[in-house]
Amino acid sequence: MNFDYLDVFVTISTNNIQALIDFYSHLLQKQPTVYLPGVYGEFQLQKLRLGIFQPKTERKLEFDNISSSMSLCIEVENLEQAIAFLADMGYTPPGEIIYSSHGQEIYAYDPEGNRLILHQAKKK
After folding, report:
1. For 97, which of 2, 24, 72, 74 is 20 to 30 Å away at the CA?
2. What is the C-alpha to C-alpha distance for residues 113 and 68, in angstroms, rounded to an integer?
3. Of the candidates 24, 41, 66, which is a domain's last residue?
4. What phi, psi does 20 have (nearest 5°)?
5. What is the residue range of 95's domain?
6. What residues contact 39, with CB distance under 8 A and at least 6 apart?
7. How does DSSP classify residue 64?
8. The domain boundary residue, chosen from 18, 36, 66
């Protein structure tokens, strides 16, 4: 038996969809490629689709009080510039830069508290 799939993409559930659409539009410097106001927005990135949706009223309880260890990791060319960009947006990362064998990174959060990892790969 095979598990045939056509695509894989990430979605974020929110009760404040416009705030997240605005945040990711600013952060990613592009508008959603699919946009249904108050319902769904989707950003087509180079190698990923990011969907943001507001659960239907009858499904909201499924998404309330769910904590997740999932993070959206965004690789950047210049970590200091990315930190400054987020700070200008009003979302200064609360911690310090973490250095590791694979590069450096910092944790930040979107308006809904979803963790973002801004990562700069180690120069070869």
Report:
1. 24
2. 10
3. 66
4. -75, -40
5. 69-124
6. 17, 53, 54
7. T
8. 66
- What average pLDDT does range 111-118 have in this prediction? 89
Closest among 46, 52, 61 to 18, alpha carbons compared? 52
Q: What is the largest CA-CA distance in the chain?
A: 51
| Cα dist from 89 to 28, 74, 83, 92, 93, whole Å | 12, 16, 10, 8, 11
Same domain, 2 and 58: yes
Q: In this predicted model, what pLDDT tens digit does every residue of 15-45 receive, in sequence order?
A: 899 999 999 999 999 999 999 999 999 999 9
Strand partners, 41: 35, 52
Surface-to-core class of residue 66, CB atoms within 10 Å of its CB (0-12 exposed, 13-18 middle, 19+ buried): exposed
Model's pTM, two decimal places?
A: 0.79
Note whether 14 and 55 are same-domain residues: yes
Whether 73 and 62 share a structural domain: no
